[in-house]
Design a protein that fits this description.
5-stranded antiparallel sheet, alpha+beta, 213 residues, 7 helices
């Protein structure tokens, strides 16, 4: 029996699609083979945030993780994030078949201290919050109509994981919803619904902007 999620996917018009190659070129990080052992249970990072600290926050983070006995996978993932200028660490892990959804904590950001990485079996990690509205999205009639009605509305991370459904070829689609509003404290003007297609091998193949509601 089809779920509400699968019926929603089937009923939505696909407004924009980006291929894996283009998506990875602009939006993917390379994590290598990691799993739930990449999760680090945060220790105190107050010293890293101190104005008196003589160590850069990202260096302090990695040093704190090493001293606390973090698993090598957790340190490797944090190094990958630091290298991408996104100092943080994986704080939760959710298996999605052969792929996974990693929650990332960004301890040194003033706002939006949490995000999500969709990690394929090939180690490519897609930051679902980065560039939530892309150029191909802005060209669609749906986005233009929404922007005309709500000119100040922008995506506010983090995206919410809505669910996953199997596809006919043995893969799956995972859906994320990102609120659209004009400020953190403002009421939402809508939501951006985006699906990522994962093939049978666990590789993320494409991104689809389903609708704006």
């Amino acid at each position: 029996m089809p779920t509400r999620f699968s019926r929603h996917l089937a009923g939505c018009a696909i407004l924009a699609i980006s291929s894996l190659a283009a998506m990875q070129a602009a939006h993917a990080l390379e994590t290598g083979p990691i799993d739930a052992r990449a999760v680090w249970q945060e220790r105190s990072l107050s010293a890293c945030r101190s104005e008196q600290s003589r160590t850069a926050p990202d260096v302090c983070l990695l040093r704190t993780m090493q001293r606390s006995g973090a698993h090598p996978q957790a340190i490797a993932a944090a190094k990958m994030l630091v290298k991408a200028d996104k100092a943080g660490f994986i704080s939760a892990w959710r298996p999605l078949g052969k792929a996974a959804l990693a929650t990332v904590t960004y301890p040194f950001r003033a706002n939006t201290n949490e995000g999500s990485l969709l990690i394929g079996s090939d180690g490519a990690a897609i930051d679902v919050d980065e560039d939530s509205v892309r150029e191909e999205d802005r060209a669609t009639p749906a986005w233009r109509a929404f922007a005309a009605a709500h000119p100040d509305a922008v995506p506010f991370a983090p995206a919410d994981f809505v669910g996953s459904t199997a596809t006919a070829d043995g893969g799956q689609s995972v859906l994320f919803s990102t609120p659209l509003k004009s400020c953190h404290a403002c009421a939402g003007d809508g939501a951006l619904l985006v699906a990522y297609t994962i093939d049978q091998a666990g590789i993320v193949r494409e991104r689809k902007l389903l609708t704006i509601r």
